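Let us work through a complete example step by step.
Step 1: write down the sequence.
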Amino acid sequence: MSDGLSQVTEDSARGGFFLFSGAALASIILAVSAILMGRLLGPNLYGEYNLVLVIPSLLLLFTDLGVNAGVTKFAASLRVEGKSDRIPKIISNGLIFRLAVGVIVSILSLVFAGYFALLINRPTYTFLIQLASLSVIFQVVFTTSNSAFVGLDKSEYSALATTTRAVLTTILQVTLVVFSFSLTGALIGFVGGFVIASLLGGAILFFKFLRPVHDSKVLGSVNQSGRQVLTLLARYGMPVYVSVVLVGFFPLYQQLILSFFSSNAAIGNFRAAYNFVSLLSIISASITTALLPAFSKLEFAKPEVVSAFFNKANKYTCLVIVPITVVAIIFSGPIVKLLYGSGYTSAPLFLSLNCAVYLLCVIGSLTLQSVFNGLGKTRLTMNVALINFVLLLVLSPILAIFYNVVGVIVASIISTVVASIYAAVVATRQLKIKFSFKIPFRIYLISLLSAFPALILVLFTSLDFAVTFLFGAVAYLFVFATLMPIMKIINKQELEALARVSGKLPLVKVAGKLLFSYQQKILFSING
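Step 2: predict the structure and record it as tokens.
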């Protein structure tokens, strides 16, 4: 079982790397696009741009119905069970169903755009909403293809499609806005990026995975109708879908509340902060997505095996998320000035507050969803989302009345804390998962210790904000990497395993070798 667990860990690391690298690269590129859009459009038009995108984002939530999670889950678990011949039918039927729903939703969005404009309290936005809603059908193909790639352990194709979308969106948006197309140009670029990326992802999925199987007539030999496949996906995925809808509704609901209580400039500051926070959300989503196939492979394992893998996954999740979160909080001011200029005066505070919820990863806030879904306990995921949703729904308008944007963010923090604690309690009682807090607490400790050199730069020097951020972030990460082996957060065997995995990944091979050899020398000097 230890060999099997090691293989699952290595597969997860490989898939996680491609998802993380693709998502990180795409988020950096899109962050550049968002920065340029924020500068070129200004706070008011940038606020309008983000309000318009609320509608297609909201509509996209109603096209999934749990299919994406089901495609990822069964593509992974069926391979482990030796039933790979069923996978193409799962993927093809899921894609066709989502495509059909996407067409219907797109038509409805075009017809009822005027009513949707009233929903965001901007009745003059009808045409802009129609334009942005054209992206829905292409986002359907894009997201379903990526779900299939992850389940097939081919996350590199997901990374390719995601990065392609980011590059094309940036090029189109900047070009069109510079050539005086203003807000309309930004929306055309948004739609165009999904059009081309969805065609790329769909083509790879069809020609590399589905067509060869279809030509070999394996599909016809599988005694399972399309209706049975969709029933299987719905039975597993519907609770996941409910949770995805609720969680996906959170940022949209926040903007709906703010549209009634805040100015466009305040919403622009909120979105400017959220754009950087989205980097953390993309990284955390990459981790969650990579872990779903891993826990799917452990569906029938003993509780102690699941606990062992969970604690290992949670440890590495904390190692990635906690230092990035602390850096974002410390350098919120320099980050906003560097990226958006001095016009976004409220964004640093919004950024720091929004980042705070990611410090809950110590109790599994980012990994327990994968545990629940991978083990087939999707109703637990739904219950967590429901608790989060109800609290957010009630608290957001109340706190927004008194504290505006800060009130909305605080409402999100409170709801997330309560939901995360509930998830941890349920995992302990129902799934018999035993949390190991020893190493995660050490990670938090060295995260705080590593912050002192950075804080000295921020508080006691008058260096340019770009220089402060650059040197402060480098100093933080160097101290953090040094303290990891000293505090016994990582041992020799883990370093060797990480070096072995990174050695198979060309993009991080050199950096990984330097980092891990440096940490191994520290361990050797300590242990002798």
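Step 3: interpret the result. Residues 20 and 125 are 35 Å apart (CA to CA).
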